[in-house]
Design a protein that fits this description.
The chain contains eleven helices and seven strands. By secondary structure, it is an alpha/beta fold. The strands form two sheets. It has a four-stranded parallel β-sheet, sandwiched between helices. A three-stranded parallel β-sheet has the order 2-1-3, sandwiched between helices. The longest helix is centred in the middle third of the chain and has 15 residues.
Length: about 240
């Protein structure tokens, strides 16, 4: 019998929806009953992760623990979390659950290895960039990571917070597009969309730069983990 995926969600709501939609899209199914059972806790009470990491903001861990434990109690067999920055707290979450918890950053780094990537550019929140969690995962696999310069990083944060999170799709994206192009000019073969709002942004603004979507990677790996077939072109 197929197992159940639990999503520690709400970080943010659109990113949670994007992950669930991608779970559906990657699944090889001909009818409802062939899809994966998914439990979602869209916990928007979880405080901002970047604020906690960099500015001594409210600790998100207690609410993240509540969500993980709640999902395990609902019957989840594996947990996933559609927030890259939240993975800074990943190891602290593990002792509170007795089921596997997939790490989106590590799954993405493994996917990059399979793609033959040797240098990638990172697009992510200040919290994710400065915590070094992506750099660690990629460097352990022999992949170098190019980071945005200060002004480039500011444009990434603007797109994430003033654009996607704020639901403002009239935002001028020229600075962000220049930031992406500069990363590619500095040798990045692909851009890692290291904030789960960024795949949403790529869909909304139809950016065409080569990108690796951790949300899609996580969806594919989670579906395979619970024993359900994934479409060949979406298998990581």
């Amino acid at each position: 019998m197929n197992k159940t995926i639990g999503i520690v969600g709400g970080m943010g709501p659109l990113a949670t929806c994007d992950l669930y939609q991608k779970i559906i899209q990657v699944t090889q199914a001909n009818k409802d009953q062939e899809h994966v059972r998914v439990c979602i806790d869209g916990n928007t009470r979880i405080p901002d992760r970047t604020a906690a990491i960099l500015h001594k903001g409210r600790d998100p861990l207690p609410q993240m623990i509540k969500s993980a434990v709640r999902l395990e109690g609902m019957g989840a067999d594996v947990l996933i979390m559609p927030c890259n920055t939240a993975h800074y707290f990943y190891k602290k979450l593990l002792p509170f659950v007795d089921i596997p918890f997939l790490n989106m950053l590590e799954e993405t780094a493994d996917a990059a290895v399979k793609m033959g990537i040797t240098k990638a550019g990172l697009l992510a929140t200040d919290g994710t960039v400065k915590s070094g969690v992506y750099e660690k995962a990629f460097q352990e696999r022999g992949i170098s990571l190019e980071l945005p310069a200060k002004e480039e990083q500011e444009s990434v944060m603007e797109l994430i917070y003033d654009g996607v999170k704020a639901g403002n799709y009239s935002l001028d994206t020229k600075k962000f597009e220049r930031a992406m192009d500069k990363l590619l000019q500095r040798g990045a073969q692909v851009l890692v969309l290291g904030c789960t709002e960024l795949p949403v942004a790529f869909q909304r603004w139809k950016f065409t730069q080569p990108a690796l979507d951790p949300t899609l990677v996580l969806a594919s790996r989670a579906v395979q983990f619970v024993g359900v077939k994934v479409k060949e072109q979406m298998r990581f």
